[in-house]
Structure formats: C-alpha cells, structure tokens
Amino acid sequence: MTTIPRQWAGKPGTGTSTQDPAAAEAVFLDATLSLLEPLAIAPGDVVVDVGPGAGSATVALARAVGDRGRVYAVDLDPAMLDATLEAARAAGVIDRIRPVLHDVEDGTPALPEPADVVWASWCVHHAHDWDAAVGALAGLLRPGGVLCVAEGGLPTRCLPWDVGTGRPGLEGRLDVAHDRYFSEWFFDRAAVRPGRGWSEILTGAGLVDVTTHSTLVDYPAPLSEQVRAVALAELAARVRRAQPHLADDDAAAWARLLDPHDDAWLGHRGDLALLSARTAYRGRSAQPGRS
Fold first, then answer.
1. pLDDT surpasses 90 at 15
2. Furthest-apart CA pair in the chain: how many Å?
3. Does 8 score more than 50 pLDDT?
C-alpha cells in the first residue's frame, strides 16, 4: 500500500475525508472492486476515472485494461492527481494512466478518444448541479459505453448503541447532525436541488438499462490496527464536519471518545466495528453496443 500524506488543495468541500486517503481506500478496496466487477472492463478498454483520490481504483482499472488499454484520471486537484500517479508508479502501471486536470463543473473533459467505461466514485455529489455533471460524464462515452456513479449507500456504523459515555444512540444522532451539515454546505453554494435519485438522474442523461448494485463493508470487532485507525479517522472527520449541529453533551462525549489520552477513547475498545454499504448506479449509452 502506498500512503500519500494529504496535500489537498482543491475547492472547499472537495477532496478526501481523512488525512490518509490511501489508508482509507485500502480498507474499502474490496467494496470498490465489487462495484467495479459488473462493468466487465476488458483488456484494451478506454476507462475514465473521475475523482481518483489516492489512486487505488485507478490502479485496479489500469490492471484490468492491460497493456493495450488506457485510464484517464480526471480531477480538479493537482495534488490528488500526483497521489494517483505515485500509486500507479508503485504498482507498475504508470504507463497506462493519463492524468487530466479538469473540473466537471466546467462540462465534459476534452479527451482524445471516447470511453468504454466512465467510473465516478463519491465525487459527483460535490457538483453544484448533479444532472449537469452526470450529463457531462455521459458525454465521454462511446456508443454503448457504460457510466457508473458510486454514490450513497448506508451510513457507517462503528459503535454499540450505548458506549457508556454520553447518552445512548450517539452515532445515530451524529448521522442527523452530519445530514444538517451536508444540507447547509450544499445549498450555501447555490447548488441546484436534484429532487430525484441517482437512477433517474442517469436516465435523464439519456442512459438506458440503468441498474443499481450495492455491496457490504463488514469488518466485525475486534478490528485490526489498520482498520481501527481508518474507522477512528472516518468518525473524527464526520464529527468535525457535524460539530456546529451537535448538542453540547454529544459534542463533549465525542471529544472524549476521540481523544487518545482519555480513558473513554474508542481506540481502547474491543467492540469497535466497521459496517456500511456502498451503492453504484450504472447505465449504458443509448446506441447499440456493450451491455
């Protein structure tokens, strides 16, 4: 695993959730591969990876397309493209990667060839207009090409209902506070309210045979050191974002639970888990071709 320290310089509200995106991607890699599998990427394919993060999916895609294929890594943040290229170099697939500095808010990237597959994982929700962003990505496809957008799923669960610090149900209330944070962040940017789900957004972009695939992320207690570190980092990121919307007693409880110097620190617990579900929506360009 290549660990890339965070050097995020993108727009506010974009980028990675934690300080070590490569570590988080390694923990969620099996789920990512499960979402990629139905795309049936073959040697020689042209694939676009939008929002590649630290490059774990980009490397998997590069291995799938083989020596004759190409993967265009598209991101608005040069630091994330650098991280992706470093991961590709370490994996020995750097010659298959083409970095593209582009913001999907500006429309369809100007690539030299159409794509067999476009993969966008946890990035389209950053766009001001989800319909426009999906339409821009669909514009990259060759006839019969496939667009897959990984968004949504279920909130992560790490804690028992009662952790013994603060009121029971602490993690559920964090979900509520985090949703308030996201709603304020989204509409503070004068974003366009989508008003419908991702399947209908893909259909509205002219794609056909739109389907949905979900996969489970299940790391039961006790966690390995690697997974525990990621679970704690993800919780800390959610608490940081949701902080203005937490009740005072919940904020105090989280401060204790996330403090390694406190007796209540979650890192001491043997019942910390990591359970979630991730979902991808895919559709095919309307013209005849690959299914």
1. no
2. 62
3. no
